[in-house]
Amino acid sequence: MGVQTSYNYGISKGMVGGLYDITYHETNTFITPGGIPFGYGVVNGTNLGVDVRLPDAESKAADFEGIVQNGFTTMQDMNGKAIPEKDQSIGVLRIGKIWCAVGAAAKPAYDKPAYLITDGDEAGRFTTEEDTATKILLPLRFIDEKDDDIAPIRVTGQIIVEKEVSNS
């Protein structure tokens, strides 16, 4: 009888919404409307600084709050999914490195700019320039290629200011 020395399955490099490494990071607490998975990008909600929501076609880069972090405080449902429920507190990574959910057409690579998908079934996921999805460019950079449907992103915490045009 022989010993099994190889396996036909692999383990992902990270987990969606998990920190990429232990470098400096900043996480703030917000209230969720429910149904926002870990690793998704969120924008400001109705009450600025209090709640967040998934982006939509009206969202702008200046609305971006961060990426929903898995703090391991949300219980799994009967299907093994852990998604925060309505009015729960969630951690949103504002500065640091995190494994995020990426769109099917995303082609992340080291130091490639990251876009937030703002419309359709993939709203809240991240992608790259060549993806035809409706998206907005953010001051984020991919750290590596995607592994399954996740990829690591560096969040700089850079403030995005939209300039008003003056005619004077």
Report what the structure shows.
Strand 6 (113-117) and strand 7 (126-127) form a beta hairpin. With 168 residues, this protein is mostly beta strands. The mean pLDDT is 88. The chain is globular. It contains no helices and 9 strands. The termini are far apart. Helices cover 0% and strands 31% of the residues. Strands 1, 2, 3, 4, 5, 6, 7, 8 and 9 form a 9-stranded antiparallel sheet that branches.
Map the helices and strands.
Layout: E1 26-31, E2 41-44, E3 52-53, E4 64-69, E5 89-101, E6 113-117, E7 126-127, E8 135-142, E9 150-155
Number of helices in the DSSP assignment? 0
Uncertain spans: none
| Distance N to C terminus | 86 Å
Main sheet: strands, sense, barrel:
9 strands, antiparallel
**H/E series:** EEEEEEEEE
Q: How large is the share of residues in beta strands?
A: 25-35%
Which structural class should the secondary elements be placed in? mainly beta
Extended strand count:
9
- Overall pLDDT: 88
Q: Label the overall shape.
A: globular
Rounded to an integer in angstroms, the radius of gyration calculated over CA atoms is 17 Å
Which percent bin holds the helix content? under 10%
Summary tags:
single chain; 168 residues; mainly beta; 9-stranded antiparallel β-sheet; globular
Concise account of the structure shown:
By secondary structure, this protein is mainly β.
